[in-house]
Amino acid sequence: MIQEVTGNRNISFLPAGFSGNTTFQTTGDLSSTQSNSSANVTFVRPATFFINGFSNIPHAKYYYVFLSLVYVVTVLGNSFIMCTIYLARRLHTAKYIVVFHLALSDLCGSSALIPKVIDTYLFEHQEISYEACLAYMFFVFHFMNLQSLTLLALAYDRLIAICFPLRYHAIVTKTAMFLIIGVMWTLSVTFIALLVSLITRLSFCSSTVVNSYFCDHGPLYRLSCNDNVINLIMANICFGLLVCMPLILIIISYFCIALALLKIAHGAERNKAMKTCTSHLMLVAISYVPLLGTNIAALATFIHPNARIINNSLTQTIPPMLNPIIYTLKSEEVMLSIKELYKRSKVNILEK
Fold first, then answer.
1. N or C: which end of the chain has fewer CB within 10 A?
2. How many helices (H) and strands (E) does the chain have?
């Protein structure tokens, strides 16, 4: 029998590695459901989780100060690139709709993660309510997946531009890009909402200490004391469809681009076409290489929790900071637009 404890009762446990008392709050009416197991298992939904972060590292707060500086640069850089695209008429194209969406995803993803990390560790607010933890998890993973899917949309743009240049403006339209962005949001919201909602079927009857720097899905569902196989399966499905599949499609698109470039007779034209892909390739590299490296290393060998936290946090925070810098410095269209906006602002100031 699986019993769900109800009423106005509070159950207290002392989780491993946590020096204080953690309160498990259970609500509702007393009910029981039939189970194949002969044992009686109490279903417990905790009132709060404790986000542990780094363990036994002196001066770890300096790292969180560094993340706060990363956040400031991320906000300034992505806000700047979005304002530039909005104000510059030459950038009102299908391609830069996707670039604008990437900057927006980077800004929202960092805003969902870093301010809460700073509040958690610099101000020692490591306890988080059950509902807030799930909401935290949803927004961090949602915007992280949007970044991955947006890189795929940019790869599609480059594929059509190089392989079908004469049909580019007919295929890659503003309407088509808005439709692609809508599909990305639908997919991400659907899968991540399902991933997070499956946490609610888990019972946390012992430790509620999350060994990560935020409400991470893996460390959280592994704390459960009932069957969590479906959570593991859903995590693998989301990782495969929303992270690995876009990377595979990006690699295939660049294989097709490489074949098309080999057919270009003139070296100058080939170099010009390749130059339009360099900024995107750099974004793909800084986004996927650390992420895949960390996951492959975790499968191949033991990674210390502190090393995993550093790798994951840098993987989620550094690419959003670098993306606007790369697009600003590597894109001639963006640089020309910035110069035009600067000249226009100077003229307006002089006229006043």
1. C
2. 11, 8
